[in-house]
Amino acid sequence: MLRSIGADATEVRLPDHLAGLDGLIIPGGESTTLSRLMSLYRLREPVADMAASGKAVWGTCAGMIMLAAEITEEDPVPLAVMDVGVQRNAFGRQVDSFEQDLTIKGLGPHSYHAIFIRAPVIMRVGKEVDVLSALPDGRPVAVQQKNLLATAFHPELTADARMHRYFVAMAGGPAYDENAPLIESPRVRGRLVQDS
Amino acid sequence: MVAEILTGTFTVKSGHAQMLKGGVIMDVVTPEQARIAQEAGAVAVMALERVPADIRADGGVARMSDPSMIAEIIDSVSIPVMAKCRIGHFVEAQILEAMGVDYVDESEVLTPADEMHHVWKHDFTVPFVCGCRDLGEALRRISEGAAMIRTKGEAGTGDVVEAVRHMRAVQDAIRKLRTMPDDELVVEARDLRVSLDLLQQTREEGRLPVVNFAAGGVATPADAALMMQLGADGVFVGSGIFKSGDPASRGHAIVQAVTHYNDPHILADVSRDLGEPMVGRSVRELTESELLATRSI
């Protein structure tokens, strides 16, 4: 998705891989697995430093859990770089995973089709945190705190590149254009299933 | 704002498998083992009464596990829990869905309930993973609604040879598709007994249209990394962990091997001092009737 909108993208598995990056996406997955591997391969401190230094960092789903100041369970231990409280698996089990249209502040006039998979939700929002989108019941699912972005849903599973464009702009890329076309990744357009 | 909420869509079902990519799914038979697996970094556990090596040893009919045993495992971990139903046994699948299992494995490891038909998986809210030995089998399962595929290998042997054979078969068939002219693609669809549309989609994407894990015989970190380098999106480890001398260390090592599958230095490090691997049985020593992979294809 990042490459399809003109950004260079690389995978980060070890601290050395962070060198020279303008931004970092902590993806979805299992937050317990993510947390353990980040500890083991000493990624916690460099990623927290990167967030503190003002570089753009975006967490989706499990990544959002990792950015949080606190979560409702003891495990995993988050990086505590963003002033939000998060609850894991807030909607139940996989059979409760869902898709829903959201309005997202800053993305332009069209609604955004969001995919929530065993998703977390934001329970507490600090003073510095801007809520970009919330569910009809008021619980926030997309938030920004200066250079930090967190979404409870999975923009990488849709063909809509707006969230990615928004983040690339945060990382010093081209300014976000609210009038850019909605669907920009031909590889995933109109297919039975989509790949990240 | 009143927005429609959709559950059980193919996007949500196959999307969950996308979140497991690069991870290890471990077979567990008790809540204690499930906690060890979670602690070792598993992205999900497969709850079952007996691991495939024991099913093989015990013989008899292998069925869905006791719901109370599955429920205990669901309560003991926060990671997703999968469980197996027999091939074609849609009522076992309904029961597993009702219990809140996160993924159903319609598995050849259990004794098939139907030798002609698989479960029609599109009707379920819960996603399904199914086994395959080649591209045709994979795409037939996807047509029936499988949101995730695993190559079958030969479960409960600790011998990786069949897992390699099946992963290579799938990848080779996809490579062949990529240079195949349209007129030959029609014949290929007929030969594989799959829809032309799904075959075209596979050709365009250059991969299976859903996540594909390796399974059946993975016993060491090197086995797991081998499957990843051959093109697997992740790895199932069945008997290989809890039939070994030191399950916690071996599980943890296999998780790291799957993350760093392209880094031989890390693979060397994590392969050290893991104790005894599962004893295993060479697939070549098995009789035709002992093979699980050839069931209901």
What integer value in Å does the Rg of chain A equal? 16 Å
Multimer state: heterodimer
Helix proportion of chain A: 10-25%
Structural class of chain A: alpha/beta
Order of helices and strands of chain B: EHEHEHHEHEEHEHHHEHEHHH
How far apart the termini of chain B lie comes to: 47 Å
Q: Would you report the number of β strands of chain A?
A: 10
Q: Which outline of chain B best applies? A: globular
Could you walk me through the main structural features you see in this protein, from its secondary elements to its overall organization?
The complex is a heterodimer of chains A (196) and B (297). With 196 residues, chain A is of the alpha/beta class. Helices cover 17% and strands 25% of the residues of chain A. In chain A, the strands form three sheets. Chain A has a five-stranded mixed sheet with strand order 1-2-10-9-8, with helices on both faces. The termini of chain A are close together. The C terminus of chain A is likely disordered. Chain B has 297 residues and is of the alpha/beta class. Helix content of chain B is 43%, strand content 13%. Chain B is built from 13 helices and nine strands. Chain B has an eight-stranded parallel sheet, sandwiched between helices. In chain B, helix 2 runs parallel beside helix 4, helix 2 runs parallel beside helix 12 and helix 10 runs parallel beside helix 12. Chain B starts with a strand and ends in a 27-residue tail after the last helix. Classes of the chains: A alpha/beta (196), B alpha/beta (297).
